[in-house]
Design brief:
Largest sheet: 9 strands, parallel
CATH class: Alpha Beta
Radius of gyration: 17 Å
Number of strands: 9
Number of helices: 9
Shape: globular
CATH architecture: Alpha-Beta Barrel
Distance between the termini: 23 Å
Length: 217
């Protein structure tokens, strides 16, 4: 059995144990620094959603991948966003996972509305209030959500990266409660080592790299 299919079986088991419907959880194969051949092999196993964190890498790899594949693929931008690149990121990707400051919202609000059709935007929440990590400070998140409404930018979800030295449960629960209190449906949380926990806390978007592709160089 391939590594992808082996992981997908574990993913299905985790969903089953949490008594959730697998159709409500989008599995994102994080393909950063992976070759076109690696990605094509995973697509051939049935995967359609992928995550990248560098615009330069997206432009280098994905046009040729999409040309080679007939079915619809979905591309998620999961990295830190540079304001000067946001327009091109939106052109290239379907879902943006890490909006973390007002300037990005300002730029999005000024884009042609046709460019935003079928695009989804997530706010990254710094649930651990870590100084070295991107994301909106937890205590300012609801204020930032209101700011997005003021700019008429529709926020579809919340995303978090729990601190490495803490159990993720607390942070997933924080994000779940924040989403519920603000009527937000989507939660981007859970990676290779903690996806099974994130599923229990209502994650709708799981970002998995090494468990699907193996370790990166």
């Amino acid at each position: 059995m391939s590594q992808y299919l082996d992981f997908f079986q574990n993913f299905e088991n985790a969903v089953l144990q949490s008594k959730r419907d697998i159709e409500e959880i989008e599995l994102i194969a994080v393909s950063k620094r992976k070759s076109i051949d690696n990605i094509l092999s995973v697509i051939n196993e049935g995967q359609v959603s992928f995550g990248e964190n560098q615009l330069q890498e997206i432009i280098k790899k994905w046009p040729s991948i999409k040309d080679a594949i007939q079915k619809k693929l979905k591309l998620h931008f999961i990295g830190s966003i540079q304001s000067k690149k946001i327009h091109e990121i939106i052109n290239q990707c379907d879902v943006i996972h890490a909006i973390d400051r007002e300037k990005i919202i300002q730029i999005i609000s000024k884009l042609d509305k046709n460019a935003l059709i079928n695009k989804s935007f997530f706010i990254q929440v710094n649930t651990g209030n870590e100084s070295q990590k991107s994301g909106i400070d937890l205590k300012y998140t609801e204020e930032f959500l209101q700011l997005c409404k003021d700019y008429q930018v529709n926020i579809n979800g919340l995303m978090c990266l729990p601190p490495e030295n803490e159990e993720p449960d607390k942070h997933f629960q924080i994000l779940q409660s924040l989403a519920k209190n603000n009527h937000i449906q989507n939660l981007s949380m859970g990676m290779s080592n903690d996806f099974h926990i994130a599923i229990k806390y209502g994650s709708t978007h799981i970002r998995v790299g090494s468990a699907i592709f193996g370790d990166r160089d």
